[in-house]
């Protein structure tokens, strides 16, 4: 019972990181979605508990992404299936790469001997890592708001703004990749760094593409219906 309670608390905190990251990146006003954020975090944690207990193995991540998509669709009431898939999926992938950076730093610092230690979901080390993940993601989100003033709102009024979005995102990727390279210099292989770096670039391109596509969709109000009256402009 203690394991279940601890898992639910710290896993909810971890998923809170994912959802806050998602809302920040795609420019949703978090204060309007407090109930949705909390309920989705708790439900995702409950799902994850059963995924861990029943050892779903390699499809663990797929099941998590699918669950997040469905919750975003029905809890956040997103009417468009395309964005119900894109927004949670891209956000989850970004979170995984941020998580990879943290894991690398923790291994480099000697807190973890290997990534295998994180597979045990019921240890103090794992709970501590999940808490630090939340703080790290919160820092990223605050920085994102400060330096970009907005997320990928799927609207760009001019080519200059599109270029600014591109340059800003590339700078973020370079900074994260540099930190990753430093952390993995002696502890992990260069192949792992390349994998994360390429992943960040792909994420950047996906965000830019769908930002432009969403900008076009803004001219058709019936296409997009996620609480437009509450969304920042």
UniProtKB/TrEMBL annotation:
Residue ranges of the TM segments: 6-26, 59-76, 83-107, 127-146, 166-184, 190-210
Keywords in alphabetical order: Membrane, Transmembrane, Transmembrane helix
Protein name listed in UniProt: Uncharacterized protein
Species name: Paenibacillus ferrarius
């Amino acid at each position: 019972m203690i394991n279940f309670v601890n898992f639910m608390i710290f896993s909810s905190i971890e998923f809170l990181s994912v959802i806050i990251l998602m809302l920040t990146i795609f420019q949703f006003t978090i204060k309007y979605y407090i109930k949705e954020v909390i309920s989705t975090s708790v439900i995702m944690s409950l799902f994850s508990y059963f995924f861990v207990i029943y050892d779903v193995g390699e499809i663990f991540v797929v099941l998590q992404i699918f669950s997040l998509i469905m919750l975003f669709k029905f809890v956040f009431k997103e009417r468009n299936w395309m964005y119900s898939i894109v927004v949670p999926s891209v956000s989850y992938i970004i979170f995984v790469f941020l998580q990879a950076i943290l894991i690398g730093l923790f291994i480099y610092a000697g807190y973890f001997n290997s990534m295998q230690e994180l597979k045990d979901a019921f240890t103090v080390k794992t709970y501590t890592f999940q808490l630090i993940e939340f703080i790290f993601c919160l820092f990223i989100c605050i920085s994102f708001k400060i330096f970009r003033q907005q997320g990928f709102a799927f609207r760009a009024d001019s080519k200059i703004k599109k270029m600014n979005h591109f340059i800003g995102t590339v700078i973020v990727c370079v900074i994260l990749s540099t930190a990753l390279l430093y952390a993995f210099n002696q502890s992990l292989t260069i192949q792992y760094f390349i994998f994360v770096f390429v992943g960040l670039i792909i994420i950047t391109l996906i965000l830019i593409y769908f930002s432009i596509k969403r900008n076009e969709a803004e001219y058709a109000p019936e296409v997009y219906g996620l609480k437009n009256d509450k969304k920042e402009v």
